[in-house]
Amino acid sequence: TTLELTTADGDFVRRFTSDGNGTYRIDVAPGTYAIRSPPDQTLPHCAAGPVTVVAGGYSTLDVPCDSGIR
Questions:
Q1: What pLDDT score does 53 carry?
Q2: 3 φ, ψ to 5°?
Q3: Which residues contact 11 (CB under 8 A, 6 or more apart)?
Q4: Full-model pTM
Q5: The pairing of beta strand 45-53 with beta strand 65-66
Q6: 7 alpha-carbon distance from chain centroid
Q7: What is the pLDDT of residues 31-54, one digit of tens each?
Q8: Residue range 14-24: average pLDDT?
Q9: Are 48 and 70 in contact (CB under 8 A)?
Q10: How many Å apart are CA 58 and CA 54, to the nearest integer?
Q11: Distance of alpha carbon 2 from alpha carbon 37, whole angstroms
Q12: Could you report how far apart the first and last alpha carbons of the chain are, in Å?
């Protein structure tokens, strides 16, 4: 799935893709971030955050996605 990393204020940082299992790993500077679907992507709709990344460490953020299938 294609996702976007944003600042906690919603400013775009980078676009990335999760692997076939839905996992991802992004190296970023310390700060507070969120993850969302790109605005031009209809489905799935994904959003999570905020998450704070500290220097020298990693944070975990599960990103729930709505496929639209009911």
A1: 96
A2: -135, 165
A3: none
A4: 0.87
A5: antiparallel
A6: 10
A7: 999 999 999 988 899 999 999 999
A8: 93
A9: no
A10: 7
A11: 7
A12: 19
Mean pLDDT of 18-32: 93
On the CB side of 23, CA atoms within 13 Å amount to 3
* β-bridge partners, 4: 15, 36
- Write the secondary structure of the chain as one string of H (helix), E (strand) and C (coil): CEEEEEECCCCEEEEEECCCCCCCCCCCCCEEEEEECCCCCCCCEEEEEEEEECCCCCCCCCCCEECCCC
Residue listed under structure tokens 């980078």: 14
In sequence order, the β-bridge partners of residue 8 are: none
- Name the residue among 59, 10, 69, 56 with its Cα closest to residue 37: 10
